[in-house]
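Batch job 17 of 40 flagged for manual review because the log was empty.
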Amino acid sequence: MEIFLDILVLLAIIGISNILNRFVPFIPVPLIQIVLGIGVVLIPRGIHITLNPELFLLLFIAPLLFNDGLRTPRKELWNLRASILMLALGLVFATVLIIGYMIHWMIPSIPLPASFALAAILSPTDAVAVGAMAGRANLPKRIMRLLEGEALMNDASGLVAFKFAVAAMVTGVFSLGNATFSFIIIALGGVIVGAIISLLVVWLRVFLRRHGMEDVTMHMLIQILTPFVIYIIAEELGMSGILAVVAGGIVHAVERDRIETSATMKLRIVSESTWSIIIYILNGLVFVLLGLQIPDVTRVIFESSAFNNLQVIGYIIVITLALVLLRFAWVYFFSKGTWAFGSREQLDKPKLNSAVLTSLSGVRGAVTLAGAFSIPLVLQDGSPFPERDLIIFIASGVILATLVIASVTLPLFSKKTEVTEAEDMDGQEQISKVKIIKAAIHGIRQEINDDNEAAALSVIADYNKKLRQMANKEMLESSNSSFRQSALDVRLLGIQAERDEMERLLATEAVSQEVADQFEEAIDHMEMMLSNRLKMRLMISMFRIRRLMRNVVHTDTGRRSQEDLNSLKEIKIKTSHAAISAINNHMNEDNRKASLLIVAQYNRTIERMFSHEYEQVQEDEEFQQQRVEFQFKAIQIERDEVQNMFEEGTISREMANELRQFINFLEAGMLEVDEHE
């Protein structure tokens, strides 16, 4: 029961960290998760989980790297193969030698083999942390692909170097020739084993499909188990389990792209959804577990009289700076040499800013922590492993330091690029609007099946129409805030004219009180949505609750009668004419463009009311219900896309607010139509 409660707490922390990140997007999610993990340990009766390195690598690193291999663009990685290999292999071994000697010189109590082991475990970068940093800093695409490719491979090279260094420390025996040969065998063997097992798994899935076993759940289960099976078998054979799962992910990606049938497409959609949940949880647990370990690691060092606390912290700072400087020198001079001796027509001239961004993106994470905890307690002769606690403390400190440095400095160094790419803010806002609408269309397409295809295509058609409207000059000018305010004023003027016309019709008994109340309620909703954000959200929630209750309580007879629908349609036509008249009477040079835009919207509403399509659609209750569900899903997708762009740093807070107001207008129009159905 206690283990179950601990798991619930860890999952809750992951959810809380992402909620907090919405309010403080300038703080990366990994840092928030680490802090929350530390907090859980420090509270009375806090969670204390002992990290098992082998289990950690199997449960977390194997599926994460398999998914990275499955999703990372292979063509782009191949184009960057030289740079990736120089970082994932060359820089790792340079780090082991240079930083290893430096650690031994600075801390003589750590023997040279143990110093090499510490340097080796500090050499791999963390793919998860790199992604979190890079997204917020808006790194150039080429640098991001380079970092992803490096993170896929340097885990294996760093861990292999670490194992040889630890073995040399434990046994006192080391041979450079044997180590080099063993490394090649372990690395190539891991790739081969991973590829072979993946091909066997692919063959098994094809065999099952040929025999009529198309169950998506079963095939998804096989895919989830694949990285664990690959890792276990590779490690049992003495090969690199990490490179094996990366190779396995790439093989599965090739198979996925090669075979495109309706069955595999359905599996692909389910696979993407399932893996997104798995990766979301595993990514969060990695950093929460890191936070859980830090208090105990820190307590051992700070409470020991053998260590000077300030001096130990100084070690962390110096080692972190040395890692960053070595990475910068390696990246800059390698790119410069490649450009000098390579084909200059095909290569970009090395830039100082790119080298700085790449060096600052070298964030350490899960593999570093797991490797540090895997250091044995004793040597072969039974004596304690020298300075084991100090090594673990330094590794944990470097992880935190690189996270903090990257989160602070990356946005600063990438700011210039962002400004030059978004000089025209109006144009940038227009591009963002198109992006969120396309995200909504993509999200709806993912939900299409035989039962809801008509409703989904109807909503997609509306969004495509919106895109066409935004393409013309008039809609481009609407990005101006003064134009938007003018359009809002004109829209509210039209709503007031509709309300006045409704009261006139009611006074002349042209409509019933019940129909008038329904129409008045819809008008109130519209006005609140356009003028008050807080009330808007409340009214939308009440609208959804009321609609749900209406469907539950009145499943058969709850829909308005055809007579009421016809009355509402006639009222809408009359009130729209009244609104057009009022807008035309108040039109002047200042609000002319906004007035013409709103008048055009009213005219389209009138045309829709007269159309046969409108009457036909009204009769299909299931179609309407599906359509409204898709509309609400699309609106939520749009809001999520705005939040993602804000968190990634591609848009400012002000622009995010402008885009949310744009979405509010879309939702207001959608609700207005639905209230009269």
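Reviewer: the log was empty due to a logging misconfiguration, but the result itself is present. The chain has three domains: 2-376+383-421, 423-479+622-670, 481-619. Unflagging and moving on to job 18.
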